[in-house]
Each structure stands twice: as C-alpha cells, then as structure tokens.
Amino acid sequence: MPDLGKYAAEVLAAYGVSLLLLAGLVVLSLRKGRKARATLAEVEGRKHG
Amino acid sequence: MSLWEYANPVKFLGLSARVQPFVWGGAGLCLAVGLLWGFFATPDDYRQGSTVKIIYLHVPAALMAINAWFMMLVASLIWLIRRHHVSALAAKAAAPVGILMTVIALITGAIWGQPMWGTWWAWDPRLTSFLILFLFYLGYIALWEAVEDPDTAADLTAVLCLVGSVFAVLSRYAVKFWNQGLHQGTSVPLATGGRTVSDVFFYPLLISMIGFGLLFLALVLYRTGTEIRLRRARALLARSERGA
User: Fold this and answer.
1) What is the pLDDT along chain B (244 residues), one digit of tens a residue?
2) Which residues cross the membrane (chain B) (predicted)?
3) Containing domain of residue A24, as a range?
4) ipTM of the complex, rounded to two decimals
5) Which residues of B touch A11 (CB under 8 A)?
6) Is the CB of residue A41 less than 8 Å away from at least one CB of chain B?
7) Is residue A31 within 8 angstroms of chain B, CB to CB?
C-alpha cells in the first residue's frame, strides 16, 4: 500500500466508490443478459413446442 | 461486405459474440494495468499530493461520459434516418453506461475538488454543463421506460439525444468557451498533443483511458445483445397473443 499521506481518505474513497459502481453495472448487466436469454429461450420453446 | 449488414440483429449478435471475449479481456487488462500502475507506482504531485491518483479514474470516466453521448447521437441519427432497430437499441444500451461514467466523474471530481479547491462543488461552467449532461442521461433513460411502443420511444429518445448533444459539446469545451471557473482546461489534448501532464502520470492515465473505452464497448455490445433478445421475446409474445 503506498503512503497516501493526509489525503488517504479522499483517494481511497474515490477508488472505492468508482470500482464499486463499475462492478455493480457489470454484475447488473450480466444478470439482465442472462434473464433475457432465458426469457427468449422460453418464448421460442413455447412457439415451437 | 457493407457495414449495414450488421444492422441485421442476427449478424450483429454473431459478430458481437466473436469480438466480446477480446474486448472484455482487453478492458480488464488495461484497467488492471492502468489503475494498479497509477495507484501503486506513480509519485505524488508536488502540489496536489496523493490526490493526483484520482486522475486515473476521473479523466477516463469524464471522457467516456461525453463520448458515450456522442455514440448515442450517431446511433440515434442512424435510427432516425435508416430505421435500423439495432442502432436504436445500441443507443438505449449505452445510456446506463454513460450515466454511470458521468456519476463517477462527478463524484471523483467532488472528492478531488474538496481538498484542492476547498469546496465539493462550484457552479463552474464545466461542472454545471456536466451536471446538465447527467440530467439529460436521466431524462433519456426515463423516456425509454415511460413510452410503451418501442419505435415511438426510439423516435422520442433520438430527438432528446440530439438536443442533449449541445450539453455534451459544452461539457467538453466549457472551459474554452467561458475561460472562467475553477476547473482547468484539458491536460491531455489528444488532437494537438500539447499535454501538460508529465510522462510519469500520462502513460498509466493513457492505459486507464483505453481500459475505460474498452469497458464501455464491451458493456454496450453485451447490453445491446440483451436489448435485441428482449425485443424479439416481446415481439414473439405479441404475435402469439394476436394469434390466440
């Protein structure tokens, strides 16, 4: 861990919040994508079945 | 082969599936290298101390916040002129990524501004135009959700995107237009090459900027695929309901 001096709280807060937001969007996007695939597979299955 | 072939959803999904592993991999690699290098291996600035490390998040996020809107503008124009659904869905898919980049730029800017300027916020031209861009993103996303018919929603949001482009331009050039306020001008003018950032900060910043750009691309490709599948599912359901 580098010595961040008197601004450690600011730097760590900036990195913490940003990485959390980016990770959150990636997770939500993947979750929505999986759900969309399942929904489409179900509707197409109903159509052909 | 024409670029317009990829307006076909099936062809778009095929190409997207082929390139996505490379784009996601490149994004992860560049973000890891750029952010770890910037955080652990760059010195403090002689005036700003360790807060200079916020540059590796703030600048790439702000860059992508504006560029995301321009990508949405191009996609919206393609929708309005050529009526390709994939382009409208790509614009819709990009908006949440763009608003997240805007939020990161605003939050990291406030965190950086407090110790350097003595305030979290100022009604400075760049900050204010960025806040308005954030509100345009909110309005754009809300409009997509509020209008039931997808083609009408695409039309209305495309027009909103055209109007909001004024603020995307202002966000980028506000410092030059008004030449006042707390926010400095760009430190990395890619067009002219006359940067004011030392190499020791610039190279990790450049890698981080590429990483943010690739992450944006990866997310937009993935989310556009999701929107295409949801649209097809809705169309099939509507068709089966009409047939029943």
Assistant:
1) 677 777 788 999 999 999 999 999 999 999 999 999 999 999 998 888 999 999 999 999 999 999 999 999 999 999 999 999 999 999 999 999 999 999 999 999 999 999 998 889 988 888 888 999 999 999 999 999 999 999 999 999 999 999 989 877 877 676 666 666 667 666 666 655 667 778 899 999 999 999 999 999 999 999 999 999 999 999 998 888 877 6
2) 21-42, 54-81, 93-113, 125-144, 156-175, 200-222
3) 2-46
4) 0.93
5) 50-51, 53-54
6) no
7) no
